[in-house]
Design a protein that fits this description.
- It is built from two helices and three strands, in the order E-H-H-E-E.
- It is α+β, with helices and mostly antiparallel strands.
- It has a three-stranded antiparallel beta sheet with strand order 1-3-2.
- The chain is elongated and about 50 Å long.
- It starts with a strand and ends with a strand.
- The relative contact order is 0.29.
């Protein structure tokens, strides 16, 4: 059946400030990229753990969704979803 992993992560003031400087000067924001990678990995792990908890050993049709939430878009939401299945050998 369907399984999900949801993560809502806040970006702290220091990362927000540094990203603002990067935005002004141009280039990539390493602090935001790191936050995004961590949120994605946590959502995938949560989805995987839920699949295992219902007896699945694989996930098919996986999807990742990203959103920003909160005042000044200060929160990052990552949702991983897929269909948990049991593959017999």
């Amino acid at each position: 059946g369907p399984v999900f992993g949801e993560v809502v992560a806040g970006v702290n003031f220091v990362k927000d400030f540094m990203a603002g400087i990067t935005n002004f000067l141009g280039g990539r924001s390493g602090s935001y990229e790191e936050e995004l990678i961590n949120a994605r990995n946590n959502a995938l792990q949560e989805m995987s753990d839920r699949a295992v908890s219902i007896g699945a050993n694989a996930i098919v049709g996986m999807r990742l969704d990203y959103e920003v939430l909160g005042t000044n878009s200060g929160m990052l939401m990552v949702i991983a979803s897929g269909t948990a299945v049991r593959i017999e050998q």
